[in-house]
Structure formats: C-alpha cells, structure tokens
Write a structure and sequence with these properties.
Elements (H helix, E strand, L loop, with lengths): L9 H13 L3 E7 L4 E6 L1 H8 L3 H4 L11 E4 L4 E5 L2 E5 L3 E5 L7 H10 L13 H6 L16 H37 L3 H32 L2 H5 L3 H9 L15 H19 L5 H33 L1
Antiparallel strand pairs: 1-2, 1-6, 3-4, 4-5, 5-6
Length: 313
C-alpha cells in the first residue's frame, strides 16, 4: 500500500500561525445611551464587525503600538486614543478598552452616569412629528432644539477625564518639586541635586504627554472638516431622511396632509444641508478642554523653567 504524504508550504504555515496569534480576545465595555454597561471579551474581528471599523483605525487603540494621542472621525465612529482612554464612540454606544484598569474604571462609571437622557432620537421608534425634526438643531416651524448629541456627551466625558488626569499629575509633580528646589537652594549637595534632576526628567516626560493631547485638540480646532466628521448623529439623521440629496421627495404624496409634511421636511433637510459645515457646537466643547490642557502645559513649562534655572546656577 502506498502512503501519500502532503507537505504544507512554510509560508502557509506562517500565515496560519499569524492568524492564530491575532485572534486574541480583549476586554471591552459597551455603555449605551441608557447608561447600561456590558463587558465584552472579544477579538478584534468582532469589534470591527460590531462598529464597522477598518483594521488600520482599530490599530490606533493597540497599547503595544504606542500611537500618539488621536481623535479620528470616521463615517460611523469616533476613534479616541488619549493616554489610557482607548475608545470607539458611535451614535448609540461607547466601547472602552480595558475596563478593569484602575484609571479606566472611573471613566466607565462617569459614562454610565452622564450618558442617559430623557429623550433619545434614533431612526426607529419615532413618532411622525419627531421624524420631521431629527438631525436639526433648531426646527424652523416650532423653534424646538435637539439635545446634545450622544457622541458629544461621550466625547466630553473622555476629554474631561484626560484633562483632569493630566492636571492632577501636574499638581502632584509641583507639590514634590517646590520643596525639592527649596532644599537645593538652601543646601547644595549631590543628593539634593540628584533629586531635582529626577523630578526634571519626570516633568519632561509629563510635558511631552500633555503636549501631545494639546496638539491633537489644536489640530482638530484648526480643521472644520475634521470637526464635521465627528457629527455622527447628523450623518445618521441624513441617512434616516426620506428626502433625496436634491431635496425632492423619493415618493409621491398621496394626500394634502402628507404633501404638506414633505414640504416641511424638504425645507428642514435644506436647512440641515446648510448646517453640515456648522461646527460651532463642537468647537465650543473642544475649546473649553483645549484651554484646560493648555493651562496645564503652561504650569509645567513654568515649573520646568524654574528648575532648569536653579540647576544651572
């Protein structure tokens, strides 16, 4: 009897090995608009399918790759990489990586507390009157204003958390630095000098971290198109609208009442199209945290200059 032996090419073996290695599960927590959290132990492919994100964008959140601070607006998601905050924000949920990390636990609690609101507008389950106004800041007929979009409430929690975290680290460093400088000026010794130099090194590292967050916010503020990409609810509202891009209805009105409703919706859609580049709401949010992180950077720069001056004396 002849026995046939099949050999698997080395290249195919390596590919199979790589696939096995990449299918590693990671812990995430999903927090929805009701403030309900669900822990997910899934691999990257499950996350990509869940939020329809590309692998290259998901890699931004890989802590092993050391990506810089990033806020990316995509078609259906916001990718957020700020220090220990690695999140994917959609118009309906927030996915936060490593939810059991000591620095992430308070953020999960804050998301659960602040994300819920009384009225949450989506494409499904809306009444007729609500459908007319979805996606508009101000309705031209009733003057009614939409609530702050879900994705911006989630983004605000993340920005507030990272700015507060970095400011707290700065204050801790200040608390250690000023007494060390006093000791060095009163008594110059190798021990005191070494202590101050270590604090200076820690200050330089922290300054670089703060600078990266500040630069990312500044870059966003300088580009209206990048800010417009973060308006996920606005994109969703446009997808939900029964009106075509040209403003003409996609179906013929069968009654005067429906025709009137289409006319109002067409006017509203035209207004929405004009406001597609209106980023004032987000700009004000980003500016508030830009000022906060900029103030933190100024404190670090001031203390760092003082340390350098004393060391060089």
């Amino acid at each position: 009897m002849t026995r046939q032996v099949y050999f698997v090419p080395a290249a195919e073996t390596q590919v199979a090995s790589v696939k096995k290695k990449t299918a590693v599960t990671t812990s995430w927590v999903s927090v929805d608009a009701k403030g309900q959290g669900t822990v997910l132990d899934v691999d990257k492919y499950a996350i990509m399918r869940r939020v329809q994100i590309h692998a290259r964008d998901l890699r931004v959140l890989d802590p092993m790759l050391s990506y810089p601070s990033t806020v990316l607006g995509r078609e259906k998601v916001i990718v957020l990489n700020l220090e220990h905050i690695k999140a994917i924000i959609t118009a309906e949920e927030v996915l936060l990586r490593d939810p059991f990390d000591d620095n992430v636990i308070p953020i999960v609690a804050e998301l659960k507390r602040r994300l819920p609101q009384e009225k949450n507008l989506t494409c499904q389950g809306l009444g007729e009157e609500e459908e007319e106004h979805i996606g508009l800041r101000n309705d031209v007929n009733t003057g009614e204003e939409n609530e702050f979009p879900f994705e911006f409430r989630a983004l605000e929690v993340a920005l507030e958390a990272i700015c507060s975290f970095l400011d707290a680290r700065t204050r801790e460093l200040e608390t250690d630095t000023y007494p060390a400088l006093d000791e060095l000026t009163s008594k110059i010794s190798s021990r005191n000098l070494d202590h101050v130099r270590k604090l200076k090194s820690a200050m330089t590292r922290l300054t670089n971290r703060v600078q990266k967050v500040r630069d990312e916010l500044e870059q966003l503020l300088d580009d209206d198109d990048d800010m417009a990409d973060l308006y996920l609810s606005r994109k969703l509202a446009g997808a939900c609208s029964p009106v075509s891009v040209s403003g003409a209805p996609n179906w013929y009105p069968s009654s005067p009442t429906i025709g009137s409703k289409i006319s109002r919706t067409s006017r509203a859609s035209a207004l929405t199209a004009e406001e597609d580049n209106d980023v004032e709401e987000l700009e004000m949010l980003l500016e508030a945290y830009f000022m906060q992180i900029d103030n933190t950077l100024n404190k670090l720069t001031t203390v760092g200059s003082l340390v350098l001056t004393i060391i060089l004396l």
